[in-house]
Design a protein that fits this description.
This protein folds into two domains: 28-38 and 258-349, Aspartate Aminotransferase, domain 1 (Alpha-Beta Complex), CATH 3.90.1150.10; 41-256, Type I PLP-dependent aspartate aminotransferase-like (Major domain) (Aspartate Aminotransferase, domain 2). Helices cover 41% and strands 15% of the residues. It contains 14 helices and twelve strands. The protein has helices at residues 7-11, 41-48, 52-56, 64-74, 87-98, 114-121, 139-145, 165-174, 195-199, 227-236, 244-255, 257-280, 302-311, 335-349; strands spanning 28-29, 81-84, 104-109, 125-130, 149-153, 178-182, 203-208, 221-225, 284-285, 292-296, 314-315, 328-331. α2 runs antiparallel to α11 (244-255), α5 packs parallel to α6 (114-121) and α5 packs across α10. The chain is globular. The N and C termini lie far apart (54 Å). Bound molecules: pyridoxal-5'-phosphate. Pyridoxal-5'-phosphate (PLP) is lined by residues 33, 86-88, 112, 153, 157, 182, 184, 208, 210, 216, 221.
Length: 350
């Protein structure tokens, strides 16, 4: 049979997203780190006010309106911002611009599985370096590889830990390739690495509206980097990668910091409470700076609990990967959702 695909595409596994149940299904969905609260009312109002004329015409090629708003909020010049169709697109654009077959792409594991998928797509060489005990970054090993691209998610998924800024700075200063700091969960954390881009031309910070701003369905993410790095990325992005609707809605959302911050306060309080309740049930819970918890059930029966909860329409995440087989990742839901989860777990482990 004829094979239509490049050898590396033929050989690669597909990225497996968390299950996305059909709209309207009654499930407690704690498997994809979505925000349990609705988007800002201002974002929904912007959606209501979309003008047909904006849809008739092509959108702004660089999402200018959103860039201006993000520039105000982050206090970086707007030409230091690249906007994407979700932050996944920015990750993809970095890979297309900076990697080719035979070069190295390196990241500590466990982490976001998409980094592997993107590397396989480019037929670049994957260098995975396991985190040291309790998620200490293997700094020297990462530097020694000196990849064309080095990915660090901070806060990391699925562990929820933040990588210390000193470690990131060592990477930035000693790598000759690009350092991608993926801050998808930064809104739930006290620390961020934005200051690095001002000092290091090889650093790009990636952010998203999917988690903190409750807009996973909108698909809008962005990167912040020195314009010298962005100019290469702009060459390989799609010409009109930000649709007019996403641009308008995301602009309203990022401008409404007060609403986002209020949701984050609630989620952090729920995170503390869920942590305590799981600990009381004998779970080991890693300290989280994100909107999810990595936990180890007392009997180590992670896959069993995942399956049994799924039968009860409670979705959490089980990763069949080394180091994660006895662990689960649970998105922080509303207090009602978290309580339903706790009740279900209690019944299963008693
Ligand atoms: C959710 C997530 C993303 C993807 O965000 P989108 O903007 O929705 O594409 C990127 N990186 C990490 C680590 C994530 O968890």
């Amino acid at each position: 049979m004829t094979n239509f695909f490049r050898a590396n595409v033929d050989a690669m596994a597909s990225y497996v997203p968390g299950e996305q149940p059909k709209r309207g299904t009654q499930v407690i969905k704690l498997n994809s780190n979505e925000n349990p609260y609705p988007p800002s009312p201002n974002a929904l109002a912007a959606l209501q006010n979309i003008d047909g004329e904006w849809l008739r015409r092509y959108p702004e090629p660089f999402g200018e309106q959103f860039r201006q708003a993000a520039s105000q909020v982050l206090k970086v010049p707007s030409d230091w911002i690249i906007v994407g169709n979700g932050s996944d697109e920015i990750l993809n654009v970095v890979m297309r611009a900076c990697t080719e077959p035979g070069c190295k792409v390196v990241y500590p594991t466990p982490t976001y599985v998409l980094y592997r998928t993107l590397t396989e797509m480019q037929a670049a060489d994957i260098v995975e370096i396991p985190y040291i005990e309790d998620y200490k970054l293997p700094v020297a090993e990462l530097i020694a590889v000196n990849g064309a691209v080095t990915f660090i998610a901070s806060p990391n998924s699925p562990s929820g830990h933040v990588v210390p800024i000193d470690d990131l700075e060592k990477l930035a200063s000693q790598l000759s390739g690009v350092l991608v700091v993926d801050e998808a969960y930064v809104d739930f954390s006290e620390a961020d690495a934005l200051a690095l881009v001002k000092e290091y031309e090889n650093v790009i910070i990636i952010r998203t509206l999917s988690k903190g701003y409750s807009l996973a369905g909108l698909r809008l993410g962005f990167g912040v980097a020195n314009p010298k790095l962005l100019q290469g990325l702009f060459k390989v992005k799609d010409s009109y990668n930000i649709d007019a609707i996403a641009c308008a809605v995301a602009t309203a959302a990022i401008t409404d910091q007060a609403y986002k911050n209020a949701c984050v306060v609630k989620i952090k309080a729920s995170r503390t409470q869920l942590t305590t309740e799981l600990q009381q049930l004998g779970f080991h819970v890693w300290d989280s700076h994100a909107n999810f918890l990595l936990v180890q059930p007392p009997q180590g029966n992670a896959e069993y609990l995942y399956q049994k909860l799924k039968e009860q329409q409670i979705l959490i995440r089980y990763f069949p990967y080394p180091g994660l087989l006895d662990k689960l990742r649970i998105t922080i839901g509303t207090d009602e959702q978290n309580q339903a989860l706790i009740n279900a777990i209690k019944a299963l482990i008693s």
